[in-house]
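User: Here's a chain of 113 residues. Predict its fold as tokens.
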Amino acid sequence: MITATESATKQLLMHFAGKEAQPIRIYPDECDCKGKQLTLTVDTPTDKDEVFETDGFTFFIDKDLQAEIGNVTIDMTYNGFVVTSDRPIGGVKDTSSDFAIEPCGSGSCSCGH
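Assistant: Prediction complete.
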């Protein structure tokens, strides 16, 4: 299951204000010195994804990853979105991420890649 806190939902509403909300992928990003972390990006679900509708938004995650990490919660803090899971991925349970419209490598994420 994927849930979003009230503060995360408010931020997503502001992000998509005036435009159609797009599906949001939750995925492990190895673009950080902390190792793998869960992060967000706009993408299109495939048949390998588990899809969840939460507060008017479509979130999705790879089915195998979902089985590995369990439930996911998206929160918003002063530093950006925080994506946490029941079980850690790569030894990092709580990780923060900037909401990136493009995946890491595009220069849009906080790691500088």
